[in-house]
Specification:
It contains 7 helices and 8 strands.
């Protein structure tokens, strides 16, 4: 077993060499001394050249001395490194404080000055009216009473243009003849005339529209107020008389069955009669004829509503009296 390079071979068993021919202390017991000295040099001098037993106590003291020296070196190096780091941190803090102070001083020198307040505080303050504004007028009010419904009214204002487009633009009707009369019963059929006269009918406007061999006449009758128009619709029988002419042949005469409708809005009652221009009756399941009559009736309703909206808008923008 060897304890380092160059050490003696223990138990070599007479391999042509004397295990004691060499001094076991010529080199360090564990090889070369890391510090470049013979660890036992001073010890051997105490025994002379012929001494065979080293002073183990002295060797232990020497080893302890080396360990203490190494430990003190390590402690000293650590303390020095700590001191250097502390110095760097302190320097950085001082530099940062100096920069902040200069920046704050520079900023304070550029702050805006306080605005000059006006000396005269007796100027008038804004005032607000305590009068609550009136709500916008209701469009239906203008078409519900003859006293408010003063806008011009004629067959052309109710039924303008030469064509009528409904739906998504896929249903286009051609306008035929139009008329206006103050003799309400003369443009009715069946029992509708007496009902109109009884409740104060003022006038009736009519127009006929044609599409795909189906003709629809719409009649709009005016009354003094909304209540009378509603009563007429509730008691209505018979229907409005069809109006041929201006490209529309006679229809709903001589036997074919036609469809009649009755409605009202405000002081207006409006009626429709729908039939084929040929001798053909309108049946309950005739969707084409029903749609045509409903389109023209809806158009009449929209025209009355627009009339009320136009008068309400004019009243809202009119200057105060």
């Amino acid at each position: 077993m060897s304890f380092g390079q160059g050490g003696p071979q223990w138990g070599s068993g007479g391999q042509n060499q004397d295990p004691y021919n060499q001094d076991p202390y010529n080199q360090g017991r564990y090889g070369q001394d890391p510090y470049g000295q013979d660890p036992y040099g001073s010890v051997r001098g105490q025994y002379g050249a012929d001494s065979g037993t080293p002073d183990w106590a002295a060797l232990a003291d020497a080893s302890a001395a080396r360990a203490r020296r190494k430990r003190w070196l390590m402690v000293g190096g650590g303390a020095l490194a700590t001191a250097l780091i502390a110095g760097i941190v302190a320097t950085a803090i001082v530099s940062s404080n100096n920069d902040g102070g200069n920046s704050a001083s520079d900023k304070s020198s550029t702050l805006p000055t306080a605005p000059t307040l006006p000396q005269d505080t007796t100027q008038p303050q804004p005032s607000f009216s305590s009068v609550v504004p009136l709500p916008p007028p209701n469009p239906k009010d203008f078409v519900s009473d003859r006293k408010k419904d003063t806008a011009p009214l004629s067959a052309e204002t109710l039924f303008p243009g030469k064509k009528l487009t409904m739906g998504d633009g896929d249903r286009v009707y051609t306008k035929g003849a139009t008329s206006r009369t103050g003799n309400c019963a003369s443009v009715t059929s069946g029992a509708l005339g007496p009902v109109l006269e009884t409740h104060g009918c003022e006038q009736v406007f009519r127009a006929t529209y044609l599409k795909d061999g189906i003709a629809v006449t719409v009649g709009v009758a005016t009354f003094p107020n909304e209540a009378k128009a509603k009563t007429v619709v509730q008691q209505a029988k018979g229907g409005i008389a069809p109006l041929p002419g201006a490209g529309v042949p006679t229809f709903c005469k001589g036997g074919p069955v036609c469809r009649n409708t009755y409605n009202s809005y405000g002081r207006y009652a409006y009626f429709t009669i729908t039939g084929y221009t040929k001798a053909k009756s309108v049946t309950t399941g005739d969707a084409k004829a029903y749609r045509s009559g409903d389109d023209i009736g809806e158009f009449a309703f929209r025209q009355i509503v627009r009339r009320g909206e136009a008068q309400a808008s004019a009243a809202a923008t009119a200057p105060a009296q």
